[in-house]
Amino acid sequence: MNYVDIFRNSFLEGYASATLSAGSIVACMVVTIFISSYIFILYRVINRKSFYNKSFNISLPAMAIITAAIILTIQSSIIISLGMVGALSIVRFRTAIKDPMDLVFLFWSISIGIICGAGFAVIALIASAVLTGALLLADWLPIAKSPLILLINSSSYENENEITEIIKKHCTLHKVKARNLTKDHLEMAIEVRVKGEAALVTELMYLENIISASLIAHDGEVTF
After folding, report:
1. Ordered domains of the chain (ranges, CATH)
2. What is the pLDDT along the chain (224 residues), one digit of tens a residue?
3. Distance (Å, rounded) from C-alpha 191 to C-alpha 223?
4. What are phi and psi of 147, to 5 degrees?
């Protein structure tokens, strides 16, 4: 027995090729498609961005199916698995993930493909159910509330102190974000946290020289 036979007996035969029937492959793909479709729907429900990225959402189930197919292929032969690792090692993804929640769904989709391809569909179903509950609970909890932006337009800059006093009266938080001042005109953008929105705007409009007062909501960073 030479060194080649010893290597084959000790290493290659330790990774015997798995015999996959057509039924098991179809069952794996069906479960993967079912769970990845659920991820597709959940991403659309949870996503609250101004611009919904449909292409990214479509890529989630596609990523799960492709990953499951790769895992099934790797199980069939150790030679194919080594070649697959070498081929995937040269792939570089340059697309930046701007929203951390997108990264969660992307990793979730890839994990589902790996778990289902390995034949542990029950784990994939349980993990998806637990993760769904955690995401919905975290999204429902009132951890913090985004402040509003108060836009004030006045024909005179002399009543800025009166505007500030009214804002202090109705708001628990206020911070001037922008102030545009001319000889006969004043524009202010103020970040505020207020409960009585209508009362604040109404009292501001009673001031002399106030042309308009607007409250604008935004989905940006939350101020604690």
Report:
1. 3-140 (no CATH), 148-217 (3.30.70.1150)
2. 555 555 445 444 444 455 667 788 888 889 999 999 999 998 888 876 556 778 888 889 998 998 888 888 777 666 666 666 655 555 565 666 777 788 888 889 989 988 888 888 889 999 999 999 988 887 777 655 667 888 888 887 777 888 888 888 888 888 888 888 877 788 888 888 887 788 888 888 888 888 888 888 765 555 54
3. 10
4. -70, 170
Residues 6+ apart with CB under 8 A from 136: 46
Q: What is the pTM of this model?
A: 0.61
Tokens of 48: 């609250």
Q: Which of 61, 66, 41 is nearest to 117 (CA)?
A: 66
